[in-house]
Each structure stands twice: as structure tokens, then as C-alpha cells.
Design brief:
Number of helices: 3
Mean pLDDT: 85
Strand content: 15-25%
Structural class: alpha+beta
Order of helices and strands: HEHEEEHE
Number of domains: 1
Helix content: 10-25%
CATH class: Mainly Beta
Oligomer: single chain
Distance between the termini: 31 Å
Amino acid sequence: MHNLSVLTKGANRCMLQVHPEDAARLGIVDAPTAEISTAAGRCIAELEVTDEVALGTVSLPHGWGHEHPEVWGEIARATVGVNSNQLTDDAHIDPISGNARLNAIPCTVGPALG
């Protein structure tokens, strides 16, 4: 689906969304990016401060970046953003489906230091 232009066009939907109060507490209110860390990995994502997410949570919708040169699709390769799969591992499994849990993953967010 990442190789269909109709599904990937428009605004960047791969931004870390953080509640304004959390962003202020973390010192990232005016930052263009933030670092997300989990037990499995870390990545730096563009930041969107918004009250559309609950206080104490973050959201990385459509974290489907394909920046690696081995990605086969031309449209997918051109899709901007980080790949949220870097933040998941087999330590967090959805008990109903047995699949990797792709949300409600414990993480730490802070300024992007490089």
C-alpha cells in the first residue's frame, strides 16, 4: 500500500504527535524533531505538538518511512518519515492475535540530540 501514490499523497502523516503540556515538560515545544526510544530501538521523527493526543501519550501515525536503499518501490522510497517498526520487538505481543504489538508500547521521548 505504500507504493500507491493515492494512499501516500498529501501532508506528512509520519510526525510524532505530543500533547502541549508533555512537550513543555520535555523541553521540545519549539523543536522540529524529537527522539523516541524504546527497549527495541530509537528514531528521530518530525514533531507535531497537538492537543489531539491525550496527556501522557504520544502517537506516531503512519510511521512507514522507507529510507533504506533496498526498498523496492519507487513511491515507497520517496515516502518521508521514520519507520516505527524500529521501535517494536517480540517482547510486546498482542495477546489476542499473537502478532507484534504496534501500539501502547512504553517509550521515552526527548529532544533529538543527533
